[in-house]
Amino acid sequence: MKVQLVVAKKTKRIICTAHDKGKTHDFKVFKKSKLPLNEKTKAKLDSGYQGVQQLHSNSEIPKKSSKKKPLTAKDKAANRKLARERVMVEHVIGSIKIFRILAERYRNRRTKHTQRVRLICGIYNYQLK
Predict the structure, then answer these.
(1) Tens-place pLDDT, residues 84-128
(2) Segments making up each domain of the chain, as ranges
(3) N or C: which end of the chain has fewer CB within 10 A?
């Protein structure tokens, strides 16, 4: 199962979650979730969300290099800056993985997975107080 988490930058709280089958691409989960993003909201995403600028113009993803076009020093610096800002989200995901529901193969009913992940996110948000 694939889970997408939306985390608030200032409070480190999990705002919402989206779920799909494990083989689904990250960007497809984003489109299916129909997350109502305000145009003023700055979305900082990882490289799995290539193409999100067409749906949400105020978003940042790291630049990718290719064999023919390597990254410039300016692009590398921008990617490093974005990674520093996103590390907080990765820490939140890591603390959710402590519960093992996201870290390992889920072997129970799929209908219960969504409910259990949301309960774990609620426990995480509660312990932030």
Answers:
(1) 999 999 999 999 989 888 888 888 888 888 899 999 999 999 999
(2) 2-127
(3) C
